[in-house]
Amino acid sequence: MGDPTGSAAVTNGVPEQAPAVLDDVLFSRRRFLRWISGIGATISGVLVGIPVLRSFVSPALAKAQPATWIKVAEDIALLDIAVPIRLDFIQNQSDAWVESRTQNAVWLYTEDGAKFKAYNGHCTHLGCSYYYDKELKTFACPCHRGQFDIKTGAVLAGPPPRPLDELQVEIRDSAVFVNYRDFRLGVSEQVGV
Amino acid sequence: MRRWIDERIDIASIRETLVDRKVPGGLTWWHTLGSATLAVFTVQVVTGIVLGMYYAPSPDHAYDSIRYLEHNVMSGALLRGVHHWGASAMVVLVLAHMIRVFSMGAYKYPRELNWVLGVVLLFIVLGFSFTGYLLPWDQKAYWATQVGTNIAGTAPLIGGALVKLLRGGTQLGAATLTRFYALHVLLFPVLLGFFALLHLVQVIRQGIAPRTAVLDAEPPPRTDDPAYASYYHDRYARSKRAGVRFWPDIIAKDLVVATLVIVVLVLLAHFSGAGLEAPADPTDTTYVPLPEWYFLPFFQLLKLVPGSLESVVAVGVPAALVLVLLALPFFDRRSMRSLRHRPAAAITMGVTLAGVALLLGAAFRSEPPTAVATEVGRPLSSIERAGRAMYKARNCGACHALGDQKPDTSADTPNAPDLTEVGLRHSAAWMHSFMEDPARFHPNSKMPSVGPPKLTHEEIEEITRYLASLRGPNWATAKQEFYDTFPEPVKRTERP
Question: Is A37 an 8 Å CB contact of chain B?
Fold first, then answer.
């Protein structure tokens, strides 16, 4: 800001008579005032900027939700063998300040009724709910025709960037528990959200 | 590049009018109050925008959204604190600016209309404050607004319609909250921005009022004297020629004051946040409402007048204040500006300020010994609050003690456990199962089962959530240690 000749400039058509000595004094005084202004504006900006920016970007830096153990089936004996089973469950969910109950699903697969595979019910491509295609004996996603292997969750066809998200399974007193969590969609690496 | 832009928007002339213009010399530090107000308004806009991202204007969620901001958003409490103290700063700075303009006679010729704009701005600021106070939807917000809207309701003739207009219905509720929210974030910012812009444009076009001595050198006695205009413009032009440039002389001074104000705001916000009381409870009959501190003198005045005069004072005083302030530059046309030459103005101002100070002092002294703390522990979520309501509705407190609430000690009450810290001793899962069938846990338990059909599972879960939140007076630091004994296979649950 400002011209280097400082106070000797012509303002509003009225020439200012400024002796050289006075010019020096005025010049340093002005420089001081500019410094003060700059410091003041910076302090104000930073002080207000910190809470404003931090609270604005806060959601982007939020930690991933921990997985939760959820009972998805009461009795292991009632589950089908060698056919994937979709199990819906209701979950209490905190969505920012709103607590609600949402329905989610996992797919369970077992060949011997003892060892289980559990997959998150969302397609890893863009999060649609996939289904079991009885003819092809694969998981198929209706949105973009992704296909997954029922035994391993591997991608067989279509755009999904990674295999189905496998979840931990535990059998407690003949009930089936799944350690449920969601992951970022559309990317090849598995990152919790 | 610079030349290209310059040719099109003529930066040089903008700079000349805004930045390089000359300003009368010898302006005092008191002259920085207007720009400090503008700085705080900017802070309010910026913080308000981010606050708006975390706010839900509905009675179901308003309180929870503020609680979320305070506890789950980085710097959220600080952000809200700055906005809260900024509101007080706006009122203080606007009033101080007004007192400065009044005592230097700066509202006189040719700045009468800019004074009127200033009065309009003052009332927009008060409107901001009144509507913003309700938004957190806590006890303080709810009850202060209840009283504030009732005051408007005492107005003769239009009172009934006015209170319904303010509340968006007969009751203070959901429609009031959205109404206040819309005024606070949509209408008032636009109005304040528009009028503040006009106010500033006038300051730039007319130049800031000079020191009183410049215009008090044997002027024509009245400003409506035909000779006054040329006297004024001659004296003003001379003072301006001998003055300083707006940049950096004036701006530096303005920025020093604005920075000090902002530092104070952030310190206040850091050490004493906006605070959040218990959620609004329309059924609470013990709560003593208090308005924001700058409305206290008026509040106190209402306490002093006899009941029959209350509606006259409640509506008459603010109305008279508006009229007097608006009319001031039109009936005071004597040309002398320094308070030394205006004894009547000096006395009126002194008496008014002293009266306001006395009322404020009296209001602070008569303040009740802080509102009754009804809850021990952290603020509750909406499900926990529903549980608390269910706890009261099912009269659980007839047998169980909880905090200050002692059970009915008539002869046949069973000896039920104190629930003040039950959240430390039992997990939510255990409490839920126990309430469904207490006899399964303790064969001799006198606790009646509240399982279906008495209460639904969801209702039991609500009570459970409420009970799980009860962690005694040291809730913030107290450690949970569960003694959950389940019937059949005996298990110790480690975590809820």
Answer: yes
